[in-house]
Amino acid sequence: MEKFDCVVVGAGPAGLSAALTLGRARRKVAVLDNGRNRNRVTQESHGFLTRDNIKPQEFKDIAIKDLEPYPSVSISNETVQEITKDTETNLFLVTSDNKTYLTEKILLATGVQEEFSLAQIRQYYGKSLYSCPYCDGWELRDQPLAIVAENEDHLLHMTKLVFNWSKDLIVFTNGHQISDNTRNTFEGKKIQVYTDMIKSLHGENGNLESIELESGEAIPRNGGFVIPSFYRPNKFAEQLNCEADENGGIITDGFGRTTVNGVYIAGETEKVGPSSLMIAAADGFKAATGINMDLTLERF
């Protein structure tokens, strides 16, 4: 069986950045990816220096092309099914839907996925409803926007943040009550609050036009921001016995090293939360330097 220095699971900005760094360090690397990256639903990615407004797939294509000069790096479209460690050899077996890989090191960079309390949000997510004002606030500036969230702390934080881009805000809690202090804070900024249950979202081709409440009232809105919950799309970190903190984040040393020897993690996968392309790519670079240094010290 062909043996690799590192198998990178996930070809988002973290995984591809790590693969590039490891390739330049002359490490033999296999990148496995199933194309389920979280940002595939959006039309443009923002905030990555030199690549602002780029389409997510174009960003990924450019990153993959950057790997072509490095013959020790391969990338394939596969879904990893299982990762196990042989305690006698300290090597990992990575089983995908196509083949099995033998490797010294594992980098988990599969990112996270969103869950919404309102399933209909999916129809608008990435087109007129977003979760990151830094990523998409500029495009929605000065428009009539909705803030949809059920947790009061999250709601307050997001509303304060989005207020920088648009003052025309209406808050929707989808049936959840908020404190008088929070309500007074919003009213002081002329931000209306609806605590009614949301019946339906209306619009065409992913472009929001109004939010209909259970009462039948429809409030016109051109777009807005939602606060989803996030989860890892797999249990690899848990199955490999990587230690987690009280919030579910995988504990690392700052260079991707987990509490399990040979297992590294980078990007959104680590903290189970959203990240920018720029930060995820930086995390991938740091993890790659950790991997390369460990391989260097083990072999020298």
Output the CATH homologous superfamily of the largest domain. Answer: FAD/NAD(P)-binding domain
What is the percentage of strand-forming residues? 25-35%
Order of helices and strands: EHEHEEEEEEHEHEHEEEEEEHEHH
First and last CA, distance: 24 Å
What is the CATH architecture term of the largest domain? Answer: 3-Layer(bba) Sandwich
Protein name: Thioredoxin reductase
GO molecular function: oxidoreductase activity
Subunit structure: Homodimer.
InterPro entries: FAD/NAD-bd_sf, FAD/NAD-binding_dom, Ferredoxin-NADP_redctase_2
Description:
The protein has eight helices and 17 strands. α1 (13-24) packs parallel to α8 (277-299). Strands 1, 2, 3, 4, 5, 6 and 17 form a seven-stranded mixed sheet that branches. The chain has a five-stranded parallel sheet with strand order 8-15-9-10-11, covered by helices on one side. Strands 12-13-14 form a three-stranded antiparallel sheet, with no helix packed on it. It folds into two domains: 3-113 and 229-299, FAD/NAD(P)-binding domain (3-Layer(bba) Sandwich), CATH 3.50.50; 117-226, FAD/NAD(P)-binding domain, CATH 3.50.50.60. The chain has 300 residues and is α/β, with parallel strands linked by helices. The longest helix has 23 residues, at 277-299. The chain has helices at residues 13-24, 56-66, 133-136, 152-162, 180-188, 236-239, 268-271, 277-299; strands at residues 3-9, 29-33, 73-77, 80-86, 91-96, 100-108, 113-115, 129-130, 145-148, 169-172, 192-194, 198-204, 207-213, 218-220, 223-226, 229-231, 263-265. 36% of the residues are buried. The two termini are 24 Å apart. Its cofactor is FAD.
